[in-house]
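hey so u asked for the seq, here:
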Amino acid sequence: MKEILINFAARKLHTTPVLNTNSIMKFILRSVGLAGFCAVFLIARPCNAIAQNKKFGHINSEDIIRLMPESVEADSTLARFERELQNELYAMYKELEDLAKDYRDKFKERSEAVNRIKEENIRDKQQKFEDTQRIFQQEIMEKQQKVFAPIKEKFDKAVREVAKEMGLSYVFDSSMGTFIYYDESDDISAQVKKKLGISSSGTPPSQNK
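ran it, structure tokens below
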């Protein structure tokens, strides 16, 4: 037990939940939605069965959503939320580190009974730290879904509207990495950007606060 506690006191907080915007985006885009439906549809049916008299379109959802002004605010919201949780987690870690250091420094001065009590206290604190860490990771994931859900819905709506206007039967998401050639498929990125208020240069308009 002594060696474990001493090692813990020297350990760095590498396991604190870290927010990765690219991972978040890819996770959200892979949730059930327009792109997911298209990918599943192609896998479930032969290509020649759906190619007759159909018009196809494609778009990179990840690139477009990243340009949406709402995504900038979502990233900031998630970053603030993560910092708050990290601060709480670090305070717990620091308390545990201090307890381990106190246990190590005064181990020989205390009786065996007192050391057992100290060990049990540290064990309880460490378990609470690990449980809280898991809870915070789940909370971050739920926050990601909550913040990006309306953004994804807005993107899907724009894609559906453009698809109807252009008479497209199917729209495929190239960000999923499923298709490497689409000669007879229309790139609808410009039309969707226009629907979402994104300039042709790819710069999102400033939002009024």
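The longest strand covers residues 56-59. Residues 2-196 form a domain with the Protein Binding, DinI Protein; Chain A fold (CATH 3.30.910.20).
lmk if thats what u needed
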